[in-house]
Amino acid sequence: MTDIGLSAPALRISLAAPADYWALLKPRVMSLVVFTAFVGLWIAPHRGSIVVDAVSILAIAVGAGASGALNQWWDADIDAIMTRTRNRPIPAGRIAPEEALSFGLTLAVGSVLVLGLTGGWLAAGLLAFTIFFYVVVYSMILKRRTVQNIVIGGAAGALPPVVAWAAATGSLAWAPIVLFAIVFVWTPPHFWSLALVRSDDYARAGVPMLPVVAGPDATRAHILAYAVLLLPVGLSPWILGFAGPAYALVAGLGGLAFVALAGLVYRRREGDAARRACRRLFGFSIVHLFALFATLAVERAAAML
Description:
By secondary structure, the protein is mainly α. It has 2 domains: 23-170, Orthogonal Bundle (Tetracycline Repressor, domain 2); 173-305, Four Helix Bundle (Hemerythrin (Met), subunit A). It is built from 15 helices and no strands. The relative contact order is 0.11.
């Protein structure tokens, strides 16, 4: 009599909890993506219903989560080395890599199909391109090969307002391109301020982030240059006429504060003072981007009253 237990493949019992699958989506990153997408949709001329808009935003959120899951599947080897990421579900052994891959691909395909059926195929195509760019162009090609990984790869994080605008209108315009530019220019100083603090992690994992390749002083100079560039780019919605005086005030004062904090990062180069300056800029950068987009949304709501 044959012993079936000896010939059958061993079944792996998943140790994953719902919270682990949630962590695969990179919820903190996803929340910022969803917010910028919502503002892109909110300020756009609408052609659909509230239900269509809500489903479109949900599809963009799921697409962003799919990108996070596929990124963690690909980067599991270096995530296991870095202190900041070694407790993620895959390197910690709670989710198998093949589970994460299947989960991410399912979400990616589903989000694109749902957006195509609700927001239109232009928006769906842009969402598919966003996922592809983040997973393939940034994660698989750029991240481990070039110091410009964050600069070029930042395009993926800047595209959601464009996707949402396309979902709302079925077309493109200058306004969503400007929103793209704001997030695109904001991304390098935001990320490099964290990378300065975590440079040892990236060096240990062999990831050529700017502080590892060019050194901390060159990174500080790049952060300051991008902060200065962000000031006029941040003001461009007001300059181009699709934002009002409240936005101009927030963008102007916030942009100057961003430059001032980047200046502190540039000047404070040693010890705890340097690390505090980097963390302060990193935290403020999130507040600044949120304030810019929130003010656009509030002004749009006020104009509708």
